[in-house]
Amino acid sequence: MKMRCMCLMIHAPTDLRVEEMDAGEIGPGQVLVRVGMGGICGSDLHYFNHGGFGAIRIKEPMVLGHEVAGTVAAVAPDVTGVRIGDRVAVNPSHPCWNCKFCHEGLPNQCLDMRYYGSAMRTPHVQGAFRNLLVCNAEQCVQIAPGVPMSLAALAEPFSVGLHAVSRAGPLIGKRVLVSGCGPIGVLAVAAARLHGAAEVVATDVVDEPLAIAQKVGASRTINVAQEKDWVARHSADKGTFDVMLECSGNERALRDGLEVMRPRGVVVQLGLGGDVSVPQNMIVAKELSICGSFRFHAEFALAVQIINEGRIDLRPVVTQTFPMQDAVAAFQLAGDRKRAMKVLLDFA
């Protein structure tokens, strides 16, 4: 008998529906996960509000979501590492393992990546906002007893922050600037603090997310819309910061960040915002290094381990949880930066 599941399907901007569909069959190496919690991501919001972002557009109905955790309900006969009843965070990344980048140990750059809830390819890769999810056993990382499902659902965005930190190099004793305090930004703050940064300064144009950044490890916060002299104060004597994690995708944030970087500093660009112009002379004169940070791979298991061990308190990141049936209200709240950081959906 075919399994049916309830899914959160986007048809067009603001046209979000709860629909029933075929859950699929469990194949070799796969498991069935009863999804408990899912976090609304910035990309989910772009699909909901605008039907996509940049050149990526919804061309057909698509199940949203890629930040989920749940409980294993069934396993294929050949699966040994995951058992029925295990509580797991699900890695939404499914590289092909056959292309040249997978073979080079760069699966986040896979040429045939399938990432939950993505319209980058057609047919679209259906997402994980559903009450039943068939996935590969290797995508599941076990959650420790007592860890709330709501925190386990943060493993994916936390992995993005951890990967950015790995791109920056050693942070022990370094002064780190994090610009843009959405969910990725505040989790990057947490990752930087965890990796030994001597100081983590968070910037944004809104006070409310800055308050959350402070709760997860920021040493200081700066509202750049109010403190107009912050660049002048931090750019004296060729700059203040050793590392910048740029999470906003905003050109002004990047240019201001370059001003306050010390010579031979490292700028890691996470935020997406399209083409920008940069001051070449400053980059040359300060010998700055600029690199990108795209998704993650090994960091997912590390993120779950850190959450399991309680090495950092990520509870301030979670704003509110809504039942799946109230998804529209959840998405509306998630889009309000003054009222929300990470909004979760309950699929149980």
Structural class of the helix and strand makeup? Answer: alpha/beta
- Described by the principal axes of the CA atoms, the overall outline is globular
| Name of the CATH class of the largest domain | Alpha Beta
Query: Which spans of ≥5 residues are poorly predicted at pLDDT below 50?
Result: none
Number of domains: 2
Q: Give the oligomeric state.
A: single chain
Number of helices: 11
Strand count, sense and closure of the main sheet?
A: 7 strands, mixed
Which band does the percent of strand residues land in?
Answer: 25-35%
CATH domain topology of the largest domain:
Quinone Oxidoreductase, Chain A, domain 1
Tell me the total number of β-strands: 20
What's the name of the CATH homologous superfamily of the largest domain?
Medium-chain alcohol dehydrogenases, catalytic domain
Mean pLDDT: 96
Distance between the termini: 22 Å
Radius of gyration: 20 Å
State the share of residues found in helices, binned by percent.
25-40%
- CATH architecture of the largest domain, please? Alpha-Beta Complex
Written overview of the protein:
- The chain folds into 2 domains: 4-154 and 314-346, Quinone Oxidoreductase, Chain A, domain 1, CATH 3.90.180.10; 158-292, 3-Layer(aba) Sandwich (Rossmann fold).
- The protein is 27% helix and 30% strand.
- The protein contains 11 helices and 20 strands.
- A hairpin with a 2-residue loop joins strand 1 (4-12) and strand 2 (15-22).
- The mean pLDDT is 96.
Walk me through the topology.
Blueprint lengths: L3 E9 L2 E8 L7 E10 L2 H9 L1 E2 L2 E2 L4 E2 L3 E9 L11 E4 L2 E2 L5 H4 L10 E2 L16 E5 L3 E3 L6 H4 L2 H14 L6 E5 L3 H12 L4 E6 L2 H9 L4 E4 L6 H6 L5 E6 L4 H10 E9 L10 H7 L2 E4 L6 H11 L8 E6 L3 H8 L7 E5 L2
Parallel strand pairs: 13-14, 13-16, 14-15, 16-17, 17-18, 19-20
Antiparallel strand pairs: 1-2, 1-6, 3-7, 3-11, 3-20, 4-5, 7-8, 8-12, 9-10
Helix pairs in contact: 4-5, 4-10, 5-6
